[in-house]
């Protein structure tokens, strides 16, 4: 069980490294997919309340394209790949060759399935690196894509956590293209939200005290 | 959304509730599986908006849980406050929105059905207190931002794909 009082700087450092390894692998996958160099920001690990959580991805009402999946196994949790509207449209264009607007009819099945598949590949890459690093079995669910208000989307990942407390620990990593001409610095954002029960297992497998 | 002179918009966050009186309006953003429940007294023009996340406080795995998070405890507290302000349950009416399922999810995890469960719970609790649900916009797979005007008793609902509606 998680108690915010128990969290020490070393725990946040460990989680940051966890995010770094996962997102590093995902960025490599994306870079191969787009044939482009992808940069990673150092993940930020934060303990935040639900109000902050809701506005994490740029604001409660900000329209985002999000791939969501649940992780089951010994260290359960929720995972999101969040793309801002322009980023999602740019990615859909580079994957399908069609220009789309994600909130109108031009966002067709092809674009949706391309984005969902990309979410699937990236989240899979993230989790498999994590699983290798921690030697914890993690089974991702089939990912699901939604385009809607960020607040409404992220609340779907808070259900487990909200039964235990009023805070979530989020491992937040930004990816970006290293292209000088690119005006949008970020191409996507990962959130990993371990369930409260998962922390003990994660820390234990990495040899960090947790009591 | 609504244009009211001098009125402020009272913002209610997730797992929170607040009371509003004219000329102010009350609003909560980004409802997904959560429910926004408005309870209002037509004659007194007082309303409350609760943004609840979970149907039932027995789901809490810790003691000192935030009561505003759960439908049962949140509505209990809201009613107590409204009663204190002189609104009797018999005069109160409700409008509710939210309870969506944002992601289709195959593995049948019961927690993913939380939106519909929230809707059922809120309606059951309201009927227990004999408060009539005048209008609702629940379910589906869309996020909602809602704003209630206690003078006009209208609930404005904004969505990304289906524009705005008023109930």
Automatic annotation (TrEMBL), chain A:
<dbReference type="GO" id="GO:0016787">
    <property type="term" value="F:hydrolase activity"/>
</dbReference>
<dbReference type="GO" id="GO:0006935">
    <property type="term" value="P:chemotaxis"/>
</dbReference>
<dbReference type="InterPro" id="IPR028976">
    <property type="entry name" value="CheC-like_sf"/>
</dbReference>
<feature type="domain" description="CheC-like protein">
    <location>
        <begin position="10"/>
        <end position="45"/>
    </location>
</feature>
<keyword id="KW-0378">Hydrolase</keyword>
<feature type="domain" description="CheC-like protein">
    <location>
        <begin position="111"/>
        <end position="145"/>
    </location>
</feature>
<keyword id="KW-0145">Chemotaxis</keyword>
<dbReference type="Pfam" id="PF04509">
    <property type="entry name" value="CheC"/>
</dbReference>
<dbReference type="InterPro" id="IPR050992">
    <property type="entry name" value="CheZ_family_phosphatases"/>
</dbReference>
<dbReference type="InterPro" id="IPR007597">
    <property type="entry name" value="CheC"/>
</dbReference>
<protein>
    <submittedName>
        <fullName>Chemotaxis protein CheC</fullName>
    </submittedName>
</protein>
From TrEMBL, chain B:
<keyword id="KW-0145">Chemotaxis</keyword>
<dbReference type="GO" id="GO:0006935">
    <property type="term" value="P:chemotaxis"/>
</dbReference>
<comment type="similarity">
    <text>Belongs to the CheD family.</text>
</comment>
<dbReference type="InterPro" id="IPR038592">
    <property type="entry name" value="CheD-like_sf"/>
</dbReference>
<dbReference type="InterPro" id="IPR005659">
    <property type="entry name" value="Chemorcpt_Glu_NH3ase_CheD"/>
</dbReference>
<dbReference type="InterPro" id="IPR011324">
    <property type="entry name" value="Cytotoxic_necrot_fac-like_cat"/>
</dbReference>
<protein>
    <recommendedName>
        <fullName>Probable chemoreceptor glutamine deamidase CheD</fullName>
        <ecNumber>3.5.1.44</ecNumber>
    </recommendedName>
</protein>
<comment type="function">
    <text>Probably deamidates glutamine residues to glutamate on methyl-accepting chemotaxis receptors (MCPs), playing an important role in chemotaxis.</text>
</comment>
<dbReference type="Pfam" id="PF03975">
    <property type="entry name" value="CheD"/>
</dbReference>
<dbReference type="GO" id="GO:0050568">
    <property type="term" value="F:protein-glutamine glutaminase activity"/>
</dbReference>
<keyword id="KW-0378">Hydrolase</keyword>
């Amino acid at each position: 069980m998680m108690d915010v009082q128990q969290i020490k700087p070393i725990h946040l450092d460990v989680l940051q490294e966890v995010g770094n390894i996962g997102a590093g692998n995902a960025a490599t996958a994306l870079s191969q997919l787009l044939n482009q160099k992808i940069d990673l920001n150092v993940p930020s690990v934060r303990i935040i309340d639900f109000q902050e959580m809701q506005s994490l991805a740029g604001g409660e009402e900000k329209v985002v394209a999000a791939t969501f999946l649940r992780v089951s196994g010994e260290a359960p949790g929720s995972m999101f790949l969040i793309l801002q509207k322009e980023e999602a449209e740019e990615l859909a264009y580079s994957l399908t060759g069609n220009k789309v607007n994600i909130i109108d009819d031009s966002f067709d099945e092809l674009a949706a399935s391309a984005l969902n598949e990309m979410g699937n590949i990236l989240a899979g890459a993230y989790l498999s690196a994590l699983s290798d690093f921690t030697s914890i079995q993690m089974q991702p669910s089939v990912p699901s894509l939604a385009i809607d208000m960020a607040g409404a989307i992220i609340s779907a990942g808070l259900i487990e956590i909200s039964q235990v407390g009023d805070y979530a620990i989020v491992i937040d990593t930004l990816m970006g293209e290293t292209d000088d001409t690119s005006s949008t610095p970020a191409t996507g954002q990962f959130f990993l939200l371990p369930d409260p029960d998962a922390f003990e297992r994660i820390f234990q497998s990495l040899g960090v005290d947790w009591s | 959304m609504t244009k009211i002179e001098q009125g402020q918009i009272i913002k209610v966050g997730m797992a929170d509730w607040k009371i509003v009186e004219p000329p102010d309006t009350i609003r909560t953003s980004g409802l997904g599986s959560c429910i926004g429940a408005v309870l209002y007294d037509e004659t007194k023009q007082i309303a409350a908006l609760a943004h609840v996340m979970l149907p039932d406080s027995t789901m809490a795995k810790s003691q000192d849980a935030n009561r505003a998070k759960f439908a049962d405890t949140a509505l209990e507290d809201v009613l107590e406050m409204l009663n204190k302000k002189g609104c009797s349950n018999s005069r109160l009416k409700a409008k509710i929105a939210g309870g969506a399922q944002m992601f289709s999810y195959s593995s049948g995890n019961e927690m993913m059905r939380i939106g519909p469960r929230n809707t059922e719970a809120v309606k059951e609790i309201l009927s227990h207190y004999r408060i009539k649900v005048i209008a609702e916009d629940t379910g589906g797979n869309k996020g909602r931002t809602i704003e209630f005007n206690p003078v006009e008793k209208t609930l404005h609902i904004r969505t990304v794909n289906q524009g705005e509606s008023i109930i």
